Amino acid sequence: xxxxxxxxxxxxxxxxxxxxxxxxxxxxxxxxxxxxxxxxxxxxxxxxxxxxxxxxxxxxxxxxxxxxxxxxxxxxxxxxxxxxxxxxxxxxxxxxxxxxxxxxxxxxxxxxxxxxxxxxxxxxxxxxxxxxxxxxxxxxxxxxxxxxxxxxxxxxxxxxxxxxxxxxxxxxxxxxxxxxxxxxxxxxxxxxxxxxxxxxxxxxxxxxxxxxxxxxxxxxxxxxxxxxxxxxxxxxxxxxxxxxxxxxxxxxxxxxxxxxxxxxxxxxxxxxxxxxxxxxxxxxxxxxxxxxxxxxxxxxxxxxxxxxxxxxxxxxxxxxxxxxxxxxxxxxxxxxxxxxxxxxxxxxxxxxxxxxxxxxxxxxxxxxxxxxxxxxxxxxxxxxxxxxxxxxxxxxxxxxxxxxxxxxxxxxxxxxxxxxxxxxxxxxxxxxxxxxxxxxxxxxxxxxxxxxxxxxx
Length: 457
Description:
Arc Repressor Mutant, subunit A, 3-stranded parallel sheet, 3-stranded antiparallel sheet
């Protein structure tokens, strides 16, 4: 069996880090098993779904390194859902109901007040053809519910009926179908809720594994019953814990919380985002992965905790810095050029250990370029003026390499007796405008002799 997984976002907003988690778990599982990955846009909500958001989702997934093998749009597959709905109607498993939302809420409130679970009483199933016709003559349009198999022949006398499955994240799971209301599959306006299109697509697209958030656990029992009603073998399910904010709040596309787009614009590396999104809430230490393939080899679905996973964006900067420090020039050359940064590999090799993001190199390129745009966070003390004049006199001739800094400071130490901070700091402040920064052994040749002379008295 070839593993086939899917990620089915609604193109109604930008992906956030919480969406990235199931996308990545599915992609990593496909990588690990040699399977395929389906991107399926749940775009049946025509009022809120847009082509722009769909394009943004594809772009954000590509930035993470996810390249779908197949792409579908549910808005183009309505005929398949209509056919499945007709099959269920013909089998007596999809029945019309005419209650308004207000009427249903009053019934639920009454049931709760009487201490009963607010489960739908299947009143729509009791209606005669004449009663239905009368309701429709009033202008009411039906919504359609799926008749759960939680009875022994009499649908108005439910019995405990456990629907169970082996969850790859949570182990053995079971839900009593008698505790659930018959789910609405078709709205009164004729549009489909998520459930039926998802099942039809999973069947027709050969989805073997559904890896998704634990907020779908309760839905799984219903979906298993519908798979059976359509005569199809269900996929294997895995429900992972959800990412929340540090304060425990859920993430929302509508609020723009931690969107992938904003993280990318902030300069974070996709592997830093992927590593934190995947490893948070698992038994693994959060370390930057060298590649998605390496991350896939590291994580098992059974490693995921049952507790909520709190995502702290503050953890991204140190994680990102570790990745940036190891990036070779070839991996960043195009981005540096786009930022107007020159200097080639010698410059990047000199400054990367002092960059948390690739864009941080701009500050050090401004130091190399000098002039009015050079940032100055700190300047040498006036007391070091004579020392810096002597430094200018002892400045070695070119060519310069990584031995130049040591030769220069060695000569100054021999002449002045200075050592440690007193020897090095005035030079660093004069040349870089900062008390801390790149190793001067590699940075000094990048600055060059001409610029160095211009910064000394």
